[in-house]
Design goal:
homodimer; 156 residues; alpha+beta; six-stranded antiparallel sheet; 4 helices; elongated
Chain lengths: 156, 156
């Protein structure tokens, strides 16, 4: 269980990095076929005539790749990463085949629950950046995080 | 091109339904393996000891299924469904294997762009409901929508 983070460990301003992920063209099109079958995500030629001028990843694919990087990052929350929603959610720059993504995660707020003192609400800003360090996506996420006194529900 | 919606067609209050999607357990676990490998999404037994008390779909899987239902719904925007982000994004109730999902999409606001008069910003509330008509997810999405004068960038 070592290395798992509890509410007690998360101070405002604490930052976490991630590994990187190279975005593969076949992954873009196979995700799109399954979940977001629109020409600019499916087919290089059709995409050249779209508003994007070329093939781009579905925003939902970008966010799914973000989640995978987050789960495997050092931001290892006891009981898992359990979100209730987002105060902010923006796609800023399209993600293209060959881009390399990485995350910067920063703790923005930490509040113990008054109703359920064994847990709290943590706000984190998860910025997904490309190889030019341009943000492609910014999420301000609300997460439910157990405190150390709540180990029985840690889910591992 | 018939049936495609332009900015000019979208009045506040206009509503769109969708088909339904039965959530399959193997789809939940295979999505999770790929993008959100946490015990409560991966494995029925591990999930019983988690805060959810049973296997639940990743929120990212729910939103991806939502996108697929939306793309195939009557909400067919010329040039595709292109989101810039969300004013609201909430997961309300977990999605379990066997649940049946459907969407209710409502136009909340329509504004022509002053900088780019050939397009506009449309806010839509996309509510994903389960078989008991409980909302499981609410998105208030900002979409870029071309006006009829902008057909060359329609992307089809």
């Amino acid at each position: 269980m070592s290395g798992l983070l509890y509410l007690d460990d998360l101070a405002i301003g604490r930052r976490f990095g991630s590994a990187t992920k190279v975005v593969d063209e076949s992954e873009i099109t196979s995700f799109a076929k399954r979940f977001d079958p629109q020409p600019f995500h499916l087919d290089r030629e059709a995409a050249t005539n779209s508003r994007f001028g070329g093939l781009v990843a579905s925003g939902w694919h970008t966010v799914a790749m973000t989640m995978r990087l987050l789960v495997h990052s050092e931001f290892r929350i006891a009981g898992g990463i359990v979100g209730t929603g987002f105060d902010e959610f923006r796609w800023i720059t399209p993600v293209h085949p060959g881009d390399t993504l990485r995350l910067e995660t920063e703790v923005i707020d930490v509040r113990r629950s008054t109703r359920k003192p064994a847990q709290g609400l943590v706000k984190v800003r998860i910025t997904t950046l490309n190889q030019n360090s341009e943000p492609v996506q910014i999420l301000l996420a609300n997460l439910v995080v157990p405190s150390r006194s709540a180990r029985p529900i840690s889910g591992k």
